[in-house]
Amino acid sequence: DAGVIQSPRHEVTEMGQEVTLRCKPISGHDYLFWYRQTMMRGLELLIYFNNNVPIDDSGMPEDRFSAKMPNASFSTLKIQPSEPRDSAVYFCASSVLAGEGNEQFFGPGTRLTVL
Amino acid sequence: GEDVEQSLFLSVREGDSSVINCTYTDSSSTYLYWYKQEPGAGLQLLTYIFSNMDMKQDQRLTVLLNKKDKHLSLRIADTQTGDSAIYFCAEYVIKAAGNKLTFGGGTRVLVKP
Predict the structure, then answer these.
(1) Which of A97, A103, A110 to probe the B interface (max B CBs under 10 A)?
(2) Which terminus of chain A has a smaller tally of CB atoms within 10 A, N or C?
(3) B55-69: string of b/e by CB count within 10 Å (b at 16+)?
(4) By CA distance, what is A38's nearest residue in B?
(5) How far apart are the first and last CA of chain B?
């Protein structure tokens, strides 16, 4: 298996632009997670899905952020409009329903820079 | 609520042992994890321990769990330069409101030759 796939790996955009991050989880995994990592706040859980349904979005910073999972093999995280403080590395992770302790497998991340 | 704390930084000489410490607050955690993040990469699971265990050994890695003090540690024997990375501990809690994996802030380990 190729593991969790994220695209793009790097994104540089200007303030006010829409940004869409993409994730393909490992086939057969029932859970999908979006995290944000910054030096100031460390690793933060933004939202997670179970069987394509959003379960907990309490970590989504504000209405500018939205996430969708239209099917079991694809998810997007959208920021509209983007702001410089959104600059971070965004990770997607997936896990199986019955895995030991819900082990999460992380993608390589998308490094977002908002100018 | 869940809160996982780690020291920020650890420097160690190649060949020595490293010990990374972590404290957590939720006594209902079921699994505790150690993840490793190398530069430019995502987190990768290193090892985990079930909450009813107090020790787990896996090659150069030893995990110790003190449930009474809610303290978790990771010992790396014979530390090598390839062990330089950020190490995250995490606790997994099963609750009626929903299961949750909470990460600490990460400990940056620098191995000096």
Answers:
(1) A103
(2) N
(3) eeeeeeebbbbeeee
(4) B105
(5) 41
pLDDT for the residue numbered B26: 82
Tokens representing residue A101 in the block? 């302790």
Looking at CA atoms only, how far is residue A57 from chain B in angstroms?
12
Q: Which helix (H) or strand (E) holds B46?
A: strand B43-50
- Residue A42 gets the label, from left (phi > 0), alpha (psi -120 to 50) or beta, of left
State residue A97's pLDDT score.
65
C-alpha A13/C-alpha A115 separation (Å) is: 6
Distance from CA of A108 to the nearest CA of B (A): 5
| Ramachandran angles phi, psi of A85, nearest 5° | -70, -5
Q: Do B42 and A93 touch (CB under 8 A)?
A: yes
pLDDT per residue as tens digits for the range A66-111: 999 999 999 999 999 999 999 999 999 999 865 566 788 999 999 9
pLDDT digits over A15-44, tens only? 999 999 999 999 999 999 999 999 888 888
Confidence of residue B97 (pLDDT cuts 50, 70, 90): low
Asked whether residue B1 carries a pLDDT value surpassing 60, the answer given is no
Q: Are B20 and B105 in contact (CB under 8 A)?
A: no
CB A110 within 8 A of CB A9: yes
List % helix, strand, coil for chain A (3-state, nearest 5): 5, 55, 40
